[in-house]
Specification:
Elements lengths: L14 E2 L3 E10 L3 H8 L2 H7 L13 E3 L5 E8 L3 E7 L7 E9 L5 E10 L2 H24 L7
Antiparallel strand pairs: 1-2, 2-7, 3-4, 4-5, 5-6, 6-7
Length: about 150
C-alpha cells in the first residue's frame, strides 16, 4: 500500500478549490415566478439583496453602486428566471459572483435561490448566509401577505 502523507490544509465548510468560499440558500414560496421577479426588482425588493439606489434597467453590462457601498455589474439578466452579477462590499478586495434563480414549482409556487461564490473568507460566507436567509424570510412574509395575488 502506497500512502503518502497529506500536507494539504483541510477545507472549511463552504470552501471550494476553485471559487473560494461560497454559500447557497433557497426556499420554495407561495408566489409565482413573475410575482417574485416583480418584487425582487422593485425598490422594496432591491433593498433586501442589493441596497438603496435608483431602479436599474437590469441590463447586461449595467454597473451599479449603492448607498451602502455595494457595487458591481449585471452579467446575466433573464426576466422571471435569473440574475447573475458581480457583487462587492466595500471592505472586500475583489467582487463575488451572486446568482439569483427563480424556478417555477407546483401550485403557483416558486423556488428562489441565492448562490454566491468567490467570497473572501468563512466570516463573509456566514454574513452572506444570514443576509440571504433574511431576504428570503422577508420575501416569504410578503408572499404570504399577498397569497393568491401578485407581489408588488
Amino acid at each position: 500500500m502506497n500512502s503518502k502523507p497529506s500536507f494539504a490544509l483541510p477545507k472549511r465548510v463552504g470552501q471550494t478549490a476553485a471559487t473560494g468560499f461560497q454559500i447557497g440558500v433557497r426556499r420554495t414560496l407561495p408566489i409565482s415566478s413573475e410575482g417574485a421577479w416583480t418584487f425582487l426588482t422593485s425598490r422594496e425588493g432591491l433593498k433586501l439583496w442589493l441596497g438603496e439606489w435608483p431602479l436599474p434597467a437590469f441590463q447586461v453590462g449595467e454597473a451599479f453602486s449603492c448607498a451602502e457601498g455595494i457595487s458591481g455589474e449585471f452579467k446575466v439578466v433573464k426576466p422571471f428566471q435569473q440574475l447573475r452579477l458581480r457583487w462587492k462590499k466595500p471592505e472586500w478586495e475583489k467582487p463575488s459572483t451572486l446568482q439569483i434563480r427563480l424556478v417555477a414549482a407546483k401550485n403557483g409556487r416558486t423556488t428562489i435561490s441565492f448562490h454566491q461564490e468567490n467570497l473572501p473568507d468563512s466570516a463573509a460566507r456566514e454574513q452572506m448566509k444570514q443576509q440571504w436567509e433574511e431576504a428570503l424570510e422577508k420575501l416569504k412574509e410578503k408572499a404570504e401577505e399577498n397569497e393568491g395575488r401578485s407581489v408588488q
